[in-house]
Amino acid sequence: MNKKTANLCPCCTGKSYKECCEPYHLWQQNAPTAELLMRSRYSAYALHKADYLIKTWHPQTLPKKLDEEISEAKWIELVINKSWDSEKPNEAFVDFTARYRNVSGKAEKMHEISRFIKHGDHWFYVDGKFI
Question: How far apart are CA 45 and CA 67, in angstroms?
Fold first, then answer.
């Protein structure tokens, strides 16, 4: 892995982490769309940033033990299949596929349609449906 590849953001935009998800993780900016919040949350999983995941998870659906949600999986790739706004105001959805290696090294993938709600200028992950 060369230095440029090593600095790429885990969310697979092709941008460096510094110019992509890091400003969200450092609370220098709020993700302006549900899709960008989804990407920043994926990067937070990949980088084990539990504090960011907690603060961007809607309080009504936040798991009691988030540490169990953050595994030692190695996240490999994020593909955004589609994102769209709901007919309801301040609600959006992101259909994504994520590839990863589980703790035993087996390659796996998950496909989810995630639901997001916007309060003020902050998007929050609410829940998701596995496909």
Answer: 11
- Contact, 23 vs 16, CB < 8 A? no
Question: pLDDT for 100-112, tens place per residue?
Answer: 998 889 999 999 9
Q: Residue 84 above 50 pLDDT?
A: yes
Please report the DSSP string for the chain in residue order: --HHHHTB-TTSSSSBTTTTTHHHHTTSS--SSHHHHHHHHHHHHHTT-HHHHHHTB-TTT--S-HHHHS-S-EEEEEEEEEEEE-SSTTEEEEEEEEEEE-TTS-EEEEEEEEEEEEETTEEEEEEEEE-
Instruction: List the domains of the chain with CATH numbers.
Output: 13-130 (3.10.450.50)
For residue range 3-62, list pLDDT tens digits in order: 556 799 999 999 999 999 999 999 999 999 999 999 999 999 999 999 999 999 999 999
Q: With the CA atoms of 59, 61, 62 and 67 taken in that order, what torsion angle do they form, in degrees rounded to the nearest 10? A: 180
The structure tokens listed for 58 are 């809607």
What is the pTM assigned to this prediction?
0.92
